[in-house]
Structure formats: structure tokens, C-alpha cells
Specification:
Number of helices: 9
Shape: globular
Largest sheet: 6 strands, mixed
CATH topology of the largest domain: Glutaredoxin
CATH architecture of the largest domain: 3-Layer(aba) Sandwich
Distance between the termini: 42 Å
Structural class: alpha+beta
Number of strands: 12
């Protein structure tokens, strides 16, 4: 499915250094919370698509994500794990809510989030949609990567104290403005709790559609939906059926998750 080279643009701006997330070697904001985690995920837009994707010397897992998509957030630990452990695979991400991606949207067949395009030599060899496991992505890429040799390290000292992370971003939900807040509780060795709240703002001219929208979301089983003064709120907690069905990988560290969310445009504290 070589849909890129004949349809995509020929003049591309050189990739800016800030488009690559290499925790410990990027912006101060990213490095602050990353705790020297060694992760490399490429942020892609129209300006660097040709260089990073079409002309990549290594196979690519390209994720198309949205900040208002809970499954996209759940996939962050899996993508971090691949980027960290398999250096001969490039992990790249396109944020559908961000500017500067019109040519990408007009080129790629994007219908749902997250969508993963598995690419070799500028050609799509496979495509997966939704929450998938690491082994499914590697199998779809039809590539046996070389795992990074992990240096022997002393196990992290167990403190017995939980650590909290709260990240927020402004986005859109079916054309409506929203605020997504994702909260984590980290134990010594795993993510113990995840909580996602999406506050959707319904304009006055659409207020007569609010109940219908809420009922549709509630029927989908994607968490609880409650009305607010400005619209409605969707809440997905750690124990709800939707979160359990997505089977989130729980081994990412505080620094890794913070870096992954900041890459997606979240502000963390």
C-alpha cells in the first residue's frame, strides 16, 4: 500500500530538533519529569513526515492518536516500552488534534483512534486499530527486532510510598471543546491506579442534543456520564469495565508516563 510517495508533498522542511522526544536531552519541561528515562518517540507533522516516515531506514510504528481518546492514553506505556527496548524500530506519533497535519490527514486512511500504521521502506505493510498488545504490533510489522541489552542495575529501592501524577490537555470531542484530565498513582514497581475525566463543553445552540449525546456514550459502556453546568463529564476509573477491557500495561514508570503524555501535549504536575 504505497500510498505515500505519489500523493505526498515534495518540499519538506528539515526536521527541527524539538520534534524528537529523547528524554534527558530535550526541552527542560520534558526533562524535568522524565528522571533520565531513555525513551525515543518521534513527534510527526507535515514538516517532517517525509524524512521520518517515508525515508526512514528502519521499520516504523506510526500511531495516530487523539487526546480525547482514552484508548490512545492507555497505549502510551506500550509505545514507550517498544521505543525503549527495540532500537531498530522507530516509534512515531501524530496528534490528530494538533496543527500542521493537514497533508497527513489527506494522505492516510484515518477512521478511528488510535490507528497504527506499520511501515517499511515508505510502504504501509499493515494497519491496526484500537488497543493492542506489544506482540501484536511487532507481529503486524512482520519484523523481528533486536532487543536492547539491558545493563545490570540494582533494583529500585522500595519506599512503600505512592507517587501521584496529574496531566491535563485541552482538546475536542466530536467537534466540541473539552478538557481531559488523567491521573495516576504509582507504586514502587507499577501503575496502581488510573483515572480519566473528560469535561465536554456543549454550546447553548446544541443544548437540546446534550441528553442524546450522554445517552449514546453511556450505552457504549465507556465509563460514567453525568451532566454539568457547561455540558457533561465522562469518567473512566481504574475498576470500570471499559478500563479493564483495554488491559493497560502497568509497568511504565512515573518519568516514562510523564514524558509520554507531555509528548501528546499534556501539561503535567
Amino acid at each position: 500500500m504505497n500510498i505515500f510517495k505519489n500523493r505526498f508533498f515534495s518540499n519538506v522542511i528539515a526536521i527541527a530538533a524539538a520534534t524528537v522526544l529523547a528524554v534527558g536531552g530535550v526541552s527542560q519541561a520534558q526533562a524535568k519529569g522524565a528522571e533520565s528515562e531513555d525513551i525515543r518517540i518521534v513527534k510527526v507533522d507535515d514538516s517532517n513526515f517525509e524524512k521520518e516516515i517515508l525515508h526512514s531506514k528502519t521499520p516504523v510504528i506510526l500511531e495516530i492518536s487523539s487526546t480525547s481518546c482514552p484508548p490512545c492514553l492507555v497505549m502510551i506505556p506500550t509505545l514507550i516500552g517498544i521505543a525503549k527496548n527495540y532500537r531498530d524500530i522507530k516509534v512515531a506519533s501524530v496528534g490528530i488534534d494538533e496543527p500542521g497535519i493537514e497533508k497527513i490527514k489527506n494522505t492516510l486512511p484515518i477512521q478511528a483512534f488510535p490507528t497504527f500504521f506499520l511501515i517499511k521502506n515508505g510502504q504501509i505493510v499493515n494497519r491496526l486499530v484500537g488497543v493492542v498488545k506489544e506482540e501484536q504490533l511487532l507481529q503486524a510489522l512482520d519484523y523481528k527486532p533486536k532487543a536492547v541489552k539491558q545493563q545490570a542495575m540494582k533494583p529500585a529501592k522500595k519506599t512503600g510510598k505512592d507517587r501521584n501524577l496529574v496531566c491535563k490537555v485541552n482538546g475536542q470531542f466530536h467537534g466540541l471543546k473539552n478538557i481531559v484530565t488523567i491521573s495516576f498513582v504509582f507504586g514502587d514497581t507499577e501503575i496502581k491506579n488510573v483515572d480519566i475525566v473528560t469535561d465536554v463543553f456543549v454550546p447553548p445552540e446544541m443544548s437540546d442534543k446534550r441528553e442524546e449525546m450522554m445517552a449514546h456514550i453511556q450505552a457504549s459502556g465507556k465509563g460514567e456520564v453525568t451532566p454539568t453546568m457547561a455540558g457533561f463529564q465522562m469518567h473512566i476509573d481504574n475498576d470500570c469495565r471499559f478500563m479493564k477491557a483495554m488491559d493497560m500495561k502497568r509497568t511504565s514508570t512515573y518519568g516514562e508516563m510523564r514524558a509520554g503524555l507531555e509528548l501528546q501535549g499534556f501539561k503535567c504536575e
